[in-house]
């Protein structure tokens, strides 16, 4: 090859290699704009203590909104029901910690793919933080950034390790190191989940319109609830009795219902009423209404019923008698206070509670007893003697 041809070939090769590296570098920059802002905060000098409103929406659809009144937070999108303060505190405290882990350069179609679009399927989730003086900050949040497995064991797995965001003020797309999973949860996930938690049940009863009433009771917390009389040939199902006795300890609600619904709409104009008297003197009434999907509308009432005085040990010392009287008096005052607090918190609300959580309360008298063992269908009558034949009993 002549020197001139060799030179031309070398020049062409250099140009081709340069073009390849340029295209590769350009493709990389589409997803990463370098490291000049890596580690910089998304919200600089965010006044977290001034935030008293958080609104989250997707397009025109509000996902949830939280608002602060005094020292309390409410879930404004759930009829101002008390909010989970710890969850809100954690969410707000995380915001100043959001930093750029990777910059992203993308055109509008790429933003749509990352869930940072303005319309359609790629629309992003918009967070607005406000205070008494108005808007404090906002952020457009997209899809979670997924990390794929790198070992043979988890090569087909992936999990969220961050989130795509678009900072409107900086006109910058980036990835932050938090998946911010709470933004994908429903409004009900922000509710204060504190609810009834009582397990010293003394008497349980259920009244149902057109179905009558049943009652169970026990003399102390170490034995099972039981009906006043067990039919001959029946054996009490102790597991069922324990489920009923603990039904107010395990109960949880899924959501709160719209307070504007009428009793006729919720079925609470003709409820089934589960009443539970506790050894402490508290009495709960759980009003169970109509079904809504897999839930039931429920209201709760609490009251205090004075208990008969405990018989005194006449042989006890006067000092011990005084201690017992003081202990009983303190227990009564504690129960009264708890009733006041619980009524203030629960009585005005209608809850949506999973129907399976109410199954024990809605038991029928037939459920109280063990079911007779069914015969083996492959060998019916096995173990039974023919009619008129007596079994020989050795002496």
Folded structure, characterized:
This protein has helices at 3-31, 85-94, 108-113, 238-245, 247-250, 263-266, 318-346; strands at residues 53-58, 61-69, 72-75, 81-82, 100-104, 125-131, 134-148, 158-167, 172-176, 201-208, 212-217, 255-256, 272-278, 282-292, 295-304, 351-354. The chain is α+β, with helices and mostly antiparallel strands and 395 residues long. It folds into two domains: 48-190; 201-368, no CATH class. A nine-stranded antiparallel β-sheet has the order 4-3-2-1-6-7-8-9-5. The N and C termini lie far apart (120 Å). The relative contact order is 0.09.
Could you write a compact summary of the structure shown?
This protein has helices at residues 3-31, 85-94, 108-113, 238-245, 247-250, 263-266, 318-346; strands at residues 53-58, 61-69, 72-75, 81-82, 100-104, 125-131, 134-148, 158-167, 172-176, 201-208, 212-217, 255-256, 272-278, 282-292, 295-304, 351-354. The chain is of the alpha+beta class and 395 residues long.
């Amino acid at each position: 090859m002549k020197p001139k041809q060799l030179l031309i070939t070398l020049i062409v090769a250099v140009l081709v290699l340069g073009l390849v590296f340029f295209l590769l570098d350009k493709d990389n920059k589409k997803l990463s704009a370098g490291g000049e802002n890596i580690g910089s905060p998304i919200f600089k000098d965010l006044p977290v203590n001034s935030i008293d409103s958080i609104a989250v929406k997707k397009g025109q659809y509000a996902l949830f909104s939280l608002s602060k009144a005094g020292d309390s937070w409410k879930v404004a999108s759930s009829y101002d029901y008390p909010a989970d303060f710890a969850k809100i505190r954690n969410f707000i405290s995380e915001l100043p910690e959001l930093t750029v882990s990777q910059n992203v350069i993308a055109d509008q179609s790429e933003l749509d793919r990352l869930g940072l679009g303005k319309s359609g399927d790629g629309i992003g989730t918009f967070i607005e933080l406000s205070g008494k003086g108005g808007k404090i900050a906002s952020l457009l949040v997209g899809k979670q950034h997924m990390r794929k497995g790198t070992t043979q064991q988890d090569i087909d797995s992936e999990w969220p390790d961050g989130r795509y965001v678009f900072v409107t003020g900086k006109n910058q797309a980036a990835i932050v190191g938090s998946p911010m999973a709470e933004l994908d949860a429903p409004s009900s996930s922000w509710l204060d989940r504190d609810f009834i938690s009582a397990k010293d049940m003394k008497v349980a009863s259920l009244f149902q319109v057109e179905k009558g009433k049943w009652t169970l009771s026990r003399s102390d917390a170490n034995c099972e609830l039981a009906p006043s009389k067990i039919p001959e040939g029946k054996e009490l199902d102790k597991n069922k009795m324990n489920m009923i006795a603990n039904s107010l300890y395990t109960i949880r609600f899924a959501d709160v219902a719209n307070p504007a619904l009428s009793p006729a709409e919720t079925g609470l104009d003709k409820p089934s009423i589960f009443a539970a008297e506790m050894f402490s003197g508290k009495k709960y009434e759980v009003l169970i209404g109509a079904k809504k999907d897999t839930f039931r509308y429920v209201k709760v009432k609490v009251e205090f019923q004075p208990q008969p005085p405990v018989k005194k040990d006449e042989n006890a010392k006067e000092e011990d008698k005084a201690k017992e009287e003081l202990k009983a008096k303190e227990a009564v005052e504690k129960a009264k206070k708890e009733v006041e607090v619980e009524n203030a918190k629960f009585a005005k609300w209608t809850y949506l509670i999973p129907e399976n959580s109410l199954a024990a309360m809605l038991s029928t008298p037939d459920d109280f007893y063990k079911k007779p063992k069914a015969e083996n269908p492959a060998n019916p009558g096995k173990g039974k003697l023919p009619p008129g034949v007596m079994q020989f009993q050795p002496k």
